[in-house]
Amino acid sequence: MVYKVSLSSAKSLVVGAPRTGFALLLNILGELGRPSYQADDKVQRSVNILMPVLGEYLYTKIINFLSETYSESDIIYNQTFRQLLGGPRWLDDVNREQACVRKYIGIKDVGDFTLLIYLPKKTLHYHDRIHSHYAPARWVATPEFADCIRFATIRNPLGALYSAAFSINAITGEYIDRFMGDEGGLREKFAQFRLSDAKMVDGLISHASGYLKEFSTVQDAFNLFRWEDIIQNPASTIVDIAKCRGVTLSANEAQQLWDKISYKNLTGKHQYNFRKNKQMGRVDDWRCFLTNEHLEQMKEHGIDHYLTEFGYDPITLFDERDYTPFQKKISAALKKGRVLTEGLEDRNLQVFNWNKSNITTTDHAFDRYPRKDFSCIERAHFSDTAVLDQFSEQIEEEMSFINRFIDEVYEAGGEPDLNRWKARLAHIQNEYRERLTVSNDKALADIYTQRFNLLFDALF
Fold first, then answer.
1. How far is CA 47 from CA 34, 54, 96, 411, in A?
2. Which end of the chain has less neighbouring CB within 10 Å, N or C?
3. Full-model pTM
4. Span 214-231, mean pLDDT?
5. 439 CB-near residues (< 8 Å, 6+ apart)
6. Strand 129-132 relative to strand 12-15, pairing
7. C-alpha–C-alpha distance, residues 145 and 10, integer Å
């Protein structure tokens, strides 16, 4: 399909809380085509070309370290996180020159943890569509991204909570694939587990409330699209999205685009992000699963205010006589203070699929490590603390090394003379070869050689 295009030279920047149509909007923008900006600049291109080497290096070092203690088959590390920028990312608020990327790692029968790595924020230009779940105001306030065309997604927070309750995250999906084979009825078991845990629900709602509070202060800086509009009126909404990017679409072309991406997994290696066998096009399913206890928690956190602000109906409590069997079960458990774990007797399922990221601090016990310069073990539920202590030290050393490499590539691009720039890159290639190829790892050595060859062919 050929669209009538007058794409701005600016990149797209997309923010949106999880479960709000974020992946949908990213993929719609991707289908509209790559903007005809000047391939960034040559310095950024050089970094972009070499980034896959760094992702493979970090992945290899993580697997090698953990394999010294655990069987490699027990290490749960979804391919989503294999790229250096693979994982949720945002602009750091402590060091304003850094971006943060979150990765999730688990070990069967031991536990899991979230790992934060910190990189120069310029590396985010690796993506044509810069995207983040976090800190919308920070993106608006950061000059380096001022020229981006900003987009944002939003969804009724009640629907987003319901969706989160039924979600299966990347490492849990990896565990299911490797040790169970099929998700079966696990989603409903996970939903019972989450929605019967009042503290978990409170943490999720607090996180959503905090995001909405911040976003409401900068919403005018974004082209805002509601998940409900994309789902219910896809063609007309896609036409409007395209206009923001300078692309003219007919309603028929927009419908064809929607038919291509709708109701499919859009998150690559995370195969469980899309819920199969769910009735399509429904925006009010939450009414059959949330209870008045959840609605009261929403009210306590001021969600009613944001519902009104973004065009949703205010919260109205249910008539409990109309509860579905699911709602009756959850409400009874909440009243008794009992978290439902039936069907999740495999402790790995509870640990791996606990919402550790999109949640504010709760009373649930996590190990937290102090932030270092380039890494941080954010939240851990991991019985082997000695191994995690050692991992924390090693990963900081590796991330310091990776940051040093990236800084040198950027600095080399400051050479005004083309031959001197090329010579500095050749020096970097030789200087870092032994460590970045992880001696005797032929696959990594091949990637290293291929990426540097591509770099020199593309730029000189």
1. 19, 10, 20, 11
2. N
3. 0.92
4. 97
5. none
6. parallel
7. 10
